[in-house]
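User: Hi! Is it possible to get a structure for several chains at once, not just one? Here's what I have:
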Amino acid sequence: MTSTIIKNGTIVTADLTYKADIRIEDGVIAEIGPNLKGGTELDATGCYVMPGGIDPHTHLEMPFMGTYSADDFDSGTRAALAGGTTMVVDFALPNPGQSMLDALTMWDNKTSRAACDYSFHMAITWWGEQVFNEMETIVRDKGINTFKHFMAYKGALMVDDDEMFSSFQRCAELGALPLVHAENGDVVAQMQAKLMAEGNDGPEAHAYSRPPEVEGEATNRAIMIADMAGCPVYIVHTSCEQSHEAIRRARQKGMRVYGEPLIQHLTLDDSEYFNKDWDHAARRVMSPPFRSKAHQDSLWAGLASGSLQCVATDHCAFTTAQKRTGIGDFRKIPNGTGGLEDRLPMLWTFGVSTGRLTMNEFVAVTSTNIAKILNIYPKKGAILVGADADLVVWDPKRGKTITAGAQQSAIDYNVFEGKEVMGLPRFTLTRGQVAVEEGAIKSQEGHGRFVSRPPLTAPAKALSTWKELTAPRKVERTGIPASGV
Amino acid sequence: MTSTIIKNGTIVTADLTYKADIRIEDGVIAEIGPNLKGGTELDATGCYVMPGGIDPHTHLEMPFMGTYSADDFDSGTRAALAGGTTMVVDFALPNPGQSMLDALTMWDNKTSRAACDYSFHMAITWWGEQVFNEMETIVRDKGINTFKHFMAYKGALMVDDDEMFSSFQRCAELGALPLVHAENGDVVAQMQAKLMAEGNDGPEAHAYSRPPEVEGEATNRAIMIADMAGCPVYIVHTSCEQSHEAIRRARQKGMRVYGEPLIQHLTLDDSEYFNKDWDHAARRVMSPPFRSKAHQDSLWAGLASGSLQCVATDHCAFTTAQKRTGIGDFRKIPNGTGGLEDRLPMLWTFGVSTGRLTMNEFVAVTSTNIAKILNIYPKKGAILVGADADLVVWDPKRGKTITAGAQQSAIDYNVFEGKEVMGLPRFTLTRGQVAVEEGAIKSQEGHGRFVSRPPLTAPAKALSTWKELTAPRKVERTGIPASGV
Amino acid sequence: MTSTIIKNGTIVTADLTYKADIRIEDGVIAEIGPNLKGGTELDATGCYVMPGGIDPHTHLEMPFMGTYSADDFDSGTRAALAGGTTMVVDFALPNPGQSMLDALTMWDNKTSRAACDYSFHMAITWWGEQVFNEMETIVRDKGINTFKHFMAYKGALMVDDDEMFSSFQRCAELGALPLVHAENGDVVAQMQAKLMAEGNDGPEAHAYSRPPEVEGEATNRAIMIADMAGCPVYIVHTSCEQSHEAIRRARQKGMRVYGEPLIQHLTLDDSEYFNKDWDHAARRVMSPPFRSKAHQDSLWAGLASGSLQCVATDHCAFTTAQKRTGIGDFRKIPNGTGGLEDRLPMLWTFGVSTGRLTMNEFVAVTSTNIAKILNIYPKKGAILVGADADLVVWDPKRGKTITAGAQQSAIDYNVFEGKEVMGLPRFTLTRGQVAVEEGAIKSQEGHGRFVSRPPLTAPAKALSTWKELTAPRKVERTGIPASGV
Amino acid sequence: MTSTIIKNGTIVTADLTYKADIRIEDGVIAEIGPNLKGGTELDATGCYVMPGGIDPHTHLEMPFMGTYSADDFDSGTRAALAGGTTMVVDFALPNPGQSMLDALTMWDNKTSRAACDYSFHMAITWWGEQVFNEMETIVRDKGINTFKHFMAYKGALMVDDDEMFSSFQRCAELGALPLVHAENGDVVAQMQAKLMAEGNDGPEAHAYSRPPEVEGEATNRAIMIADMAGCPVYIVHTSCEQSHEAIRRARQKGMRVYGEPLIQHLTLDDSEYFNKDWDHAARRVMSPPFRSKAHQDSLWAGLASGSLQCVATDHCAFTTAQKRTGIGDFRKIPNGTGGLEDRLPMLWTFGVSTGRLTMNEFVAVTSTNIAKILNIYPKKGAILVGADADLVVWDPKRGKTITAGAQQSAIDYNVFEGKEVMGLPRFTLTRGQVAVEEGAIKSQEGHGRFVSRPPLTAPAKALSTWKELTAPRKVERTGIPASGV
Ligand SMILES: [Zn+2]
Ligand SMILES: [Zn+2]
Ligand SMILES: [Zn+2]
Ligand SMILES: [Zn+2]
Ligand SMILES: [Zn+2]
Ligand SMILES: [Zn+2]
Ligand SMILES: [Zn+2]
Ligand SMILES: [Zn+2]
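Assistant: Yes, the chains can be modeled jointly so their relative placement is included. Here is the combined structure:
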């Protein structure tokens, strides 16, 4: 077979920046060094060669009210590759009472056309002995080390504190990592009802019904439960200072807590919901909703200082037609926005170009950190010999104005419409296959493979050692009860 | 009728310290000034004359597993008066499904022998239309403006977030104040089960099962719910930095949140649970449990800086015999400790004498602040003409060593046993009646009356104005959906 | 002599709201009660009767570059009374090397036309044995218990940490309270020079040269020095979250720290400096400068929660002509804005009417709290028999649009120009003299008297007890050095 | 020449743990892979192969009152190697008025016997045009990118805020990093004098004279100055929560601030100063002093969460005889303790073995992070082909009890005396030379070389971009002054 060689680029990883060429063989990095020759050459002159992005949070072809989120593993992974992302992690969502194994099969069936690698988080949507037992199978046999918990979506996906504690304890035993969608579902449901009763039925009421306090509270609660159960915890879509504060407060006590801002929350704000155009506002409906600008500063600082670890998209795209289900009742607007194609260019433009982040931090928060958290580093998220050749050749001089008309996603709009970005892939490679070349999509349906993720990361093991060391000790007493006053 | 005159003392209130005599007529302060004459004179030379203490948190004759807490309104109010406290606020606890009006009648029946004035908080132990409706009656007709919510005691008193939000909203409408016992009951129950399963069945496991994090989380949650519902909130028995931090964080955003440390948590620590004597440890079992010394500093600072408002006792006394119900299973140890007689002397000794608090702050946190919060100021908690003559003539030179043998409480031990206090009542007066004189108890059974408390404090009204001003506003749109990208 | 009776009003104090009439005799409150009769009656129907405002921070007739701040004790106290303020505390500023006693005489000479009562803070502008010694005289003989320290104005008023520590220690000994203008003068001076060098010579550069971080740092430093010296500390013109955060952080450790926001910082923001009109911007030049809106929320919350204690003005008015001294060099724009007449109406309108503050809190932060801090309560800041009849009869239905044309201040503009306020004095009384009646000024030149303030407040004494209790203890060793490894 | 091969070990870096052998040639890592053969083999079976430690903070042969700190570059680097540390960074300290270039020459002269690599920080001990100019030479020609500033040691090394701001600005221009010893020197000097005056002359008074508040204040101030000057800042020997809090607060705003706890502060506490043996206490005298245990938790959590970056020693060893200079006056006790040999074993034992840190974090905080901060990564702090073969083969089963008798350091005691550590070097290699083998020291005098460090790290460049983007902008005005009110 022939090699591919990436020539004349500057390699940028989470901790290094240096000039070198890369030889790829069999989809894997075979050699890194100067002046490599032989095989197909990809010219990276003037470019940064970085690990392809990993998006740890997508919902492709997710069932919703008799239909599905509009991007499936075909269009979704194409969008990912177009934007320099080479792996997505989706969520398998069992129905109440459904076996997790069944659910996983259902979800796995959707992936046949995936153009890049993928993995799954498993959701805990109900609790019982079967769930308790299947968690072990999921971790040991199915290559999944993360379990998602929804504190919102009452009556649907939501679990209560009792179930969370049970599940988190099980995660601690298995060396798995709980993920949490942190919003207080009880309060959201009540506020939704109140707003509707008052005639507040538009998309802005979606934001009113789940303010930052509601997210901050749930984040704080999830962290406490994880601390008591003795496991790390990962908060998805951290959108606001309140939630970030809870994460920081835990981390400053040494707790192993991770936070994941979305590119949407970093760059868009809640003024979108006040747009006079219902469609415009409804297209931005997601949970948590966009926040005021002050929250953006908090999130950016978190990425720079390390209190937040990764930038995701929660890509869950619905067409305008689907969004219109919620006319007259904002609660029926399907929750979700797109972003898979835009995450890297937006983050580069508003993060690296402004000096908020270094290039190395860009790599850390788009791939390396999550690869470590998900225990797939350095197979993914690294530029090392032996690592998968999931790479993006990043051209900092290549720009565009984001527009729905030019996107890979199946939907008819883009929440970043009109944003000018500078910094785009010259090439995106998925396990060595050139999926994108100067804007041309050359991805292959079905090229993507499931990425298996083992449990027991180093932090989880360390935490478990510490928890054992500091566990409650019984006071030994003789003759109980003993003496007097 | 004859006057009583308190002569030659120094009056100390929450904001004044000055020399003056006080004339009392018909149980009410009739005159304050120099050289008052006529009537029975009480010599206050060398003493501070202060408003009698108000203990906002007692459980007298509370039903428990077929028996009752050991101090009833007789011994309880005697203990109160002996220690300079002239009013107690107890809790009416409806059974699940029981009418609040019925419960109130049951509780009211216990008070016939009360020697000092009293009032009731009403507990929300279940939710439904009947509760919603009766809350108005309780507030408008029954003179009760506070509703207690238990976030712990799962399967018994505990309410969930949904119920709390409903009740808090109702409080907002009625101008009532929700009180919260803040511990995460789900997590406590699970941790209790785990500890028992591991053989940790002693009193120390009680503390292990409800660490500060569990209280801090619930406090944080209660505050968020109150903020969303638009009412102030009062956290009972704030025992630790975690809970205090949540309170401070809310207050620094302008939220109307109150915290109540107990004299026990201010002066006793969790080393008590490690006593080799099971009885010793079990007698200290209460919820939240005693904490490590670092938490005490936090609470004292909160009193001095105003982030915590009042010192209570949660007086709920059980005899050693009752405590022994829990041999072999700490979950069955009745929760509660005494303190009614010791609150003021202990706080004076460890607060005022050390310089942590001024005398004025002592008055503020033992009576005035809670009188304002409960909307009974200046009838109670003040030394003003027209105010009830609930007074303590405090002798800073009078000391003793606390011991169970000499106490009014019906139980056979005292958690402060052996503490040396300096500062005791020379006289305690309840509406002018001299109930204590130099250690001699002269209280009258049945002298105590119910104190009616109207709703709508100034902070509650201000908050409601602010919430209205900043309420969600509907975006007016024409032709939905409209246009666009 | 004849009485004055305020009839039919609602008395509002820092902790009470009730209907009663007030009889005034000899400038003092003689009686409070229903249906008082006899003497001149002032109709307070529909009004709130409150303690007159105390402005703890003014600079009347302050020397500046060969001229003086435009309002003297005549126009300044008239402005005060017009706005419901009945006492001002000004600053005596010794020149370097000048005796404090001389300085006090100079300042005292300015007060002959004062229409309301006043007092002085003494500034520590240099250090030496003479200053050390005179501080005692100032406190014991001159009725001044506060010493001001400037951490900014390098080369002029500024003192360094060494001098501050020395002075604070002396304050601790004398029971006096240090006040601090907290901005890092070294850094300000350097940034000013840098901005000028870059051509940034306009009024906006004034704000650029002293950002919130510079104030927060100095506040934090002053607090630490006070803590080490063992005295309370009062931070003047707390303008931003950074400074407020330092205050909160100290208070939550139990430190006795006070913060004073100005009405300007509560209601005006830094966008004023970007006005295209140089005059407009220059007229708003003061130190600290106005801040962004986010800081206002912090300050309002501090007033509601008690982490900030009083609202002042730092009234230091310069005419447009005076301001123009700084054309071409913002460093020469005289620092200062007016506000004496506007403080109460602005605070009522944006504080009480919005629900951010209760009426009682309004009284607390405009008079009562500072009266306690300055140890002149209840002579001032109270409505009690025996207190000075410094009163404002506040008409919540009386409104106006603030405009320079109608003000008492001698200057030709008003920084609140155009603000609509609702809530104004119907009457202002200074020691019983009706100085304002429905907008008509009836004040008497020379009516004002110096208010003597004794040292040793209760918090200062308590702190000193605590510091003694926790003072360093020597380790007793025999045979030094003793033994081996 | 021949290769050295490290066989059968597990490589542990800051982000990877994997089995591989390492081939070393010419002092550099030549190959990493399985089953390497040829050359001298070092058996790493059962061991972790990690980058050798870098100690960024030592004072070898530092002049002190006519004598020198007891460990020079000979014994000091031997101690380092014995404990697995393969590089030290020392401080060149110019006398007041002395050229930095002269000082550097003096310091460089001491290094001829160094057994491992070293570098220098340059101290700013005075300010002037010469210093300003020489800073550029130091950075561009001398391979030094860090400048140390002392906020304490008044009258000796201390610089004031003005000088710090000037120097920090210069650092910003040059892309250099300021380091700060953060204690308020003015306050320390005053408190020292006060303690002496009160007869507190023992070593415990050293601790009394510089409490955590004094360090926290200075840290906060240094950070503000760096923020204003536009450069990152590195706080040396962060010993307490107060200082750590200031660092966290800055980082949560996105500031580029680094903190360096010492192994002493992580594991020893201030009870040492209360030892009845004067020698015992005096030997522990260093600045900042040891703190109470609560501070240790803060520091450990900072290492785990990333708010603190590296563990150093501030190794500055004085013999008992030298320490006794301070009998009768604690101010004369030479400040400093040892730790070079003990840093890694102590951190492993109390950090990794307890589960507070992962092994990867251990590597990060002992070498990799500081290598990045000092801009010498991956030459140092990495296990990569091309990196210097500064390696430690760590045997987790090898233990000892620390005792002065067995140490390399020249002094006659050890502050860790009696501590049992588990985890020691089997081999330490400095650029391939086996300097330690199973406890036997085989180091070579003079083997060590100066490590040149270029300026302009990625964070410094990013910060500078951000500061430029957000720099003050002049408001353009025409016709100044313009219009009216
Ligand atoms: Zn979600
Ligand atoms: Zn999602
Ligand atoms: Zn309770
Ligand atoms: Zn209770
Ligand atoms: Zn000032
Ligand atoms: Zn001023
Ligand atoms: Zn140092
Ligand atoms: Zn040092």
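The longest helix of chain D spans residues 212-229. The longest strand of chain D covers residues 391-401.

User: Great, thank you!
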